[in-house]
## 1
Amino acid sequence: MDDFLAKWASGDISEEEKEKFRQSKDYDLYKSILEGTEFLDLPDYNKDQSFTKVQEKIAKVPKVISLIPKWLYLAAASIALLIGFNVFFKASTTHTSGYGEQVSFSLPDDSEVILNANSSITYSTNSWQDERSLALNGEAYFKVNKGSTFTVKTANGEVSVLGTQFSVNANKTTFEVQCFEGKVRAKKGELSKVISKGQAVRAHNNNFEHWKLNQNSPSWLGDESTFDNVPLQQVILALENQYHIDIISDHINSDIRFTGFFTHSNLEIALKTVFETLEIEYTFKNEETLVLLTNNK
């Protein structure tokens, strides 16, 4: 009813609505109210003046003052920026090879690296000029350009050179270094040995075993792996990496030594070359698992 009365007072009511209202019981009461409004002396409404007054009131509202000084925001922004730069400049690069795969690439100083199967190398790209250092898991061949000390770090030891060609094999319990040019220093714990071109060392039982090389580069670059009096477990791991198989050796003496090679192109021939030579019987449990049964040596 209030809405109805407002429409009548403003002159927006239709004749049909007026007639309907006259028939209601409230008509006489609201009629007297409406007639009384005709005697009210209302001031003229000035829209522009009212808007100005509203703006003046808003301007008088007190401003909210932040309790956090501006310098603190700047400091926080600077810290975030420094963290970002720190992460950026310590960014690392990783190269990996899959089973039976070799991957070659160049380092920031143009030194060359070839990864053997199932291996990886990680190094800092942005700090390389200050520190030529990388982490190796697996086996790799290096042609290092002359410059500052070049260090290969592994879980089992590290190798340091200035400029030379060498290979490192660091898998599980294996740490083996072969030098093909120049000199390198091999370190494992308290053990340290400098070797020259044509020499190689292997960590075994807290000592370095030594032997001479008959080739100018790692044999695995030529699609085969050769071994000189190595523990059989090292040969088994090399087979697993090349052919992506699991070899269960729980029933044999894996410390026996093997001298010889196996091809990277034919699994059947590779297995016969290694295990028949050592008179070790084997069988496939499935397509990806080989079980070594017995050995007579």
## 2
Amino acid sequence: MLLCLVLLLPLSTSFAAVPTRVAVIYPDVSAPYSQVFEKIIEGIERHPGITVVAHRLSNGDATQRADDWLSSQNATAIIALGQQSHKVARDLKPDIPVIVGATLIAPNGLSGVSLAADPEAFFSRLGSLTPPVRRVFTVYNRKQSGWLIERAAKLARKYDIELISKEAESSREAVLQYNAVLDMVRDGEDALWLPLDQVAPGKTILPSILKQAWQKRLVVFSSNPSHTRKGTLFALFPDHRGLGLRLAEIVVDSIRNPNRGPVLEPLKALKIAVNMRTASHLGVNYNSRLREQISLTFPLRR
């Protein structure tokens, strides 16, 4: 299943005088998914010290074709976009830095940016996009999102939030955990975070979660704007050009510091989607300054 591809750090001007040739590999997909990768590449090209050469991966002998192409490019780094490119890059084992993006990954020896949104981006918006929240519940798969929940637990203390996380190894177990969470929440006081995860609620359980959330005045937020269209209060989703620029910055840092170990970041270049009907139900009113920060609102106006 293709995920909805769904902060910018200050640029260093000293590197601009040393151009870096970056090979970008990404899957050959049709619109609208192809537009996501094109926007990410535009973001990479915004870095003044980088020249981009790009290659679309075919579904057949992708690894061999990519290897042949890379050998002729004289690139100093590789950016692999999407799950297929991530696998190809690992198979190639090149002797130049490989940076991964536009896919949902856990730490695995490569540097890059996961599609999983930074928990701090959510926590810092509680109380402005939402009513006051002191407890946040979440259900997650440890193998996929354990690193993110560990980060979230540290950040929760910074924001005076009690994070209550429930592990689930399968979608079936996740349903049981969501039902348990919905029995625990306090009406009008708590929030439920739906991370990008293999045990995130699908179309079977999500309607039930949203129905009970409405009845209990429970704040629900996620990384998927389609959830917001269906009724969650808000979502944080990728700013694709911002993601591209951050990947470029990581390339520069990797070349400058070759002995530094791999670093995987959560996504910090984000846009905001809000369901205004849900916000009204929860008694949240946004001022003009905050409205300007919102990229997408639901229900969509016709």
## 3
Amino acid sequence: MPYSLPTPSLKGGFGIGLLHLLSNCLLSLSLSLLLAIPAKAQTDAQIQARLALATAYLHAELFSLAMLETDQVLTLSPQLPEAFGLKAVIYQKQGRLALAGSFFQKASHLAPRSAQIAHNWGVFECEQGLFESAFLKFELAQRHSEGLERDKSLWMWGICLLQNQQWEAAHLKMNESFQRQPSFISEALVLASLKIQLGRDAEAEKILDKVNDSPSVSAQSLWLSVQLAQRQNQAVKKNHWGKMLGLLFSNSVQWRAYQVEASHD
């Protein structure tokens, strides 16, 4: 399961009911084809259905159900690297780190060129502070993928470099990824903050202007724009973003901070 931009969790009530409906639909679909499809294709269809369901459960943080479906996949295909990789991510989310590491190793041994497995293993190692090893995983992931998936790995490589305080290297990776994938705008505040830290104010300003003019606008993005405008002595722009902050996020900590700061001007 490669890294993806945040999606809403499905917890309880309607969300769980929807997942169980998805379960019935996916499995019923594969079972309804049993008479019409050769045995190998039947098994493959069931594997893909259960992998999709396990991934849906994982996104919903229903880890025991995700594990159950993944184990069913391994019953059908005991050496499937995608299933070992998925178990590794489930263990990671459960905080069972030794098991997560072990299953990442098994998955990678079975599919050493899998971009998906390498990406997820890189995320895991970066979280554990194993930066140099994580960088190698991201390098492999982006080398064996293309398009959106490649740029997701490149972005996460940058995030990992950022965690290791390698500012310039992080900027290069994240900026390259963002230039090709404007859809990463909801994640762009990290890059804008990094550009400010590196003294690239004009580049940061362009990113913040795009964020503030998009559905991803937030109290944090507007507050960062206010601070950048103040740093650049742009009084008109500072007032513009301040008014927008009060209009859209009047209950936010950032708006209260802006009011306090304005009272001292």
## 4
Amino acid sequence: MSNLLIQIYRMSDNAKFEAGEGLDWVISKDGLSGFGGFQSDLGFVDSANRDGGDIVSEHLGKKDRTVTFTYRPSNGHDLARRNVLAFFTAKERYKLCVKWGLNDVFSIGKIEKLSCPESHLKHGALKLTITFLFANPYWSSIDDFGKNIAALRGMAGFPYMCSITPNTPRGRAGGIFNFAQLVTLNNSGDVDTYCKISISATDEVINPKILINGEYVRVIDTMQRNDVIEMDFIAQPPRITKNGVNYVGHCDRTSNFTNMVLKRGDNTIQYDADNGSSHLNVTVYYNKQYGAI
């Protein structure tokens, strides 16, 4: 994987360390561990009266992954070592991004173990080895597939995908000339995933509702122009806010937060309102999840 690029962001200030072909730091040969696999914790109950039994539960717990880097330049080792030791600290959270041209992914965790010995003083090679611990065992796609399912685009009466500039924080965007207020989103990841949904109003909207595969969350509210309701089903528990203020208490009691999930494969997402649905912009953000890369 000569085109493999690793970028590590410090979450507190978004500072970046990167390693890859043509950079000062490169990924060492056989320098990746825990990237290409996973281990499930399966619960098993023996049968009382026959051989075998039943698998009664399955769970993926926390995941550790280790990466080793080598410093390529023939000089500047002491400064490089001081810089990485200042960048990687015990109390910070880090976003580890892996880009290799297929499934560009990331995971967020903390440092479990770090080693950057002074062996370069004798042997000339400066190496940095870091083991990260991730609470979420899955890799997430860097692209969050932001799609405004209520967008009206001239000369486009059909779904389409389009590339946008590298500086656009949402990665890729999809628009649709949406007469039915319903679209199909495909989750081609390894497992089910959750999403965030942003609902904004261009005029008065009464009691907006979002449906995923027939399950729904309905907010009892009269939205005015420029109001924004955010539904975060990734959070545990899910969060509903209006203009940044907690609004979960305004949800219809029949709302089903638990089943607002994007299954593997095709999913239908729909929006509606008691009145004013044509004044809504509804954007869905989701990351595909992978057990291994």
